[in-house]
Amino acid sequence: ILDVPNQVECTLAMDEITKTGKAFNINFFSISPQDLEDIADSACQRLPVAIEAESEYKDLGLFIGALEDLKESVVTIRNFKMVRDEAILPRIRSGLVIDLYLKRQP
Predict the structure, then answer these.
(1) How many CA atoms lie within 13 A of 8 on its CB side?
(2) d(CA 69, CA 41)
(3) pLDDT by residue (tens digit) across 36-60?
(4) Which of 11, 26, 19 is nearest to 94 (CA)?
(5) CA dihedral defined by 14, 15, 19, 25, rounded to 10 degrees?
(6) Which of 4, 14, 23, 73 has its CA 20 to 30 A from that of 44?
(7) Residues 3-36: pLDDT tens digits?
């Protein structure tokens, strides 16, 4: 469970991810924050976020590249998958787990 200061930081980071995705025509089906993880000997905590989305291949690549430029948090990709679905071509379904690194609150 997130404490209040981290809840605010988390909300800002999630909003930024959503806005970035929309700018690249990413259709999010779900964005699900997981449990906050402590990182030993670090000033940060890690928040895994599971994302299910649909987009064109190129747009997904641009979105993933844009995650590097987020201002509210540092982001890494933990897990990534793409699924081709004939019914939605040229769009693809994707699932990824990203890690948001948030400043540890005192």
Answers:
(1) 5
(2) 25
(3) 888 888 888 899 999 999 999 999 9
(4) 26
(5) 50
(6) 23
(7) 444 678 888 888 999 999 999 999 999 999 998 8
